[in-house]
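Tokens as discussed.
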């Protein structure tokens, strides 16, 4: 879930408005309404064994529903779902819950996680999503072990292409949504490594008409937010492009967005560390790419992706590519990724 940068929040700016009243949002969406007792049964009474993860405003549990009727079923029967339960009394969590319903209840895309339904009963607020069995991209990059193996070059390309398509769709003229919290933990993977964007709690409508930006309280995740957004509170689609560039650098290098073990303070952010490499094109690929990827990529293809990532994290927003251009370049590399240089 998104977190607010309390130390840099402009207190003179009002909180982003709740998209609509709950009843208006729920009436305008085609989502299933679950009772609290149904979801309690589906998750074994929200047992610890069913927990998939925790966020700033609640926890996520594995549950089960009937594939046809979408009615909650006993654990182990039907199809698996992810059930997010909001902590009672969380005002910011309530806003994020409503934003999720507002956006995911209206949009559909192969690379955006499907919201199946919700529960709004008393103080209880829950959301039911499709289950993504391979978990988050963050797990596969940084929590390697017996279960999480290093992703191959081909799979990394597949994941970033899918994630890029999700952002390109959100930025399109027909949708105009700024995601605002793009990071590896919000990119979920299906059984066949199809990437899907999740957690729309702090997404915002993009600028309309002649407006170039939306002015809003700074929210997001440290290390991924665009510098101009942090400095001015001006939010544009190019802020998402910067965040995508950070994730692309993480995917290429296997390095986290922030690593305080790097000696120089200016190198602790992967976006700044990588920028230092751009002045030596001959060594860019060798120094940037994860050692586990050796022999899996063509030098030309890796170079194109590395340079694209550096363009995305440019300090000048106007120098960053659009997400549509990002998709085009990544797909071109993907098409030629079958002939690695040994």
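Sequence:
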């Amino acid at each position: 879930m998104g977190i607010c940068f309390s130390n840099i929040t402009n207190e003179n700016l009002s909180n982003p408005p709740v998209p609509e009243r709950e009843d208006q949002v729920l009436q305008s969406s085609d989502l299933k309404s679950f009772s609290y007792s149904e979801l309690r049964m589906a998750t074994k009474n929200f047992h610890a064994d069913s927990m998939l993860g925790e966020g700033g405003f609640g926890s996520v549990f594995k549950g089960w529903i009937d594939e046809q009727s979408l009615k909650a079923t006993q654990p182990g029967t039907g199809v698996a779902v992810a059930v997010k339960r909001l902590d009672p009394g969380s005002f910011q969590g309530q806003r994020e819950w409503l934003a999720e319903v507002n956006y995911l209840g209206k949009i559909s895309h192969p690379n955006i996680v499907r919201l199946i339904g919700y529960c709004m009963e008393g103080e209880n607020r829950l959301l039911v999503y499709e289950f993504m069995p391979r978990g988050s991209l963050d797990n596969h990059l940084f929590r390697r072990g017996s279960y999480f193996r290093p992703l191959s070059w081909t799979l990394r390309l597949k994941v970033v292409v899918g994630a890029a398509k999700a952002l390109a769709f959100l930025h399109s003229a027909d949708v105009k949504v700024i995601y605002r919290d793009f990071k590896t933990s919000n990119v979920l993977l299906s059984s066949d490594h199809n990437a899907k964007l999740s957690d729309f709690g702090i997404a915002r409508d993009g600028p309309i008409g002649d407006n170039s930006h939306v002015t809003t309280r700074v929210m997001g995740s440290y290390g991924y937010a665009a510098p101009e957004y942090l400095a001015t509170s001006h939010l544009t689609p190019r802020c998402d492009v910067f965040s995508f560039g950070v994730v692309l650098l993480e995917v290429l290098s296997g390095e986290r967005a922030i690593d305080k073990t790097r000696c120089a303070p200016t190198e602790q952010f992967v976006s700044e560390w990588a920028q230092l490499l751009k002045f030596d094109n001959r060594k860019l690929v060798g120094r940037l790419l994860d050692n586990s990827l050796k022999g899996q990529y063509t030098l030309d293809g890796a170079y194109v992706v590395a340079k694209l990532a550096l363009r995305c994290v440019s300090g000048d927003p106007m120098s960053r590519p659009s997400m549509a251009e990002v998709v085009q370049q990544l797909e071109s590399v993907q098409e030629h990724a079958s002939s690695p240089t040994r």
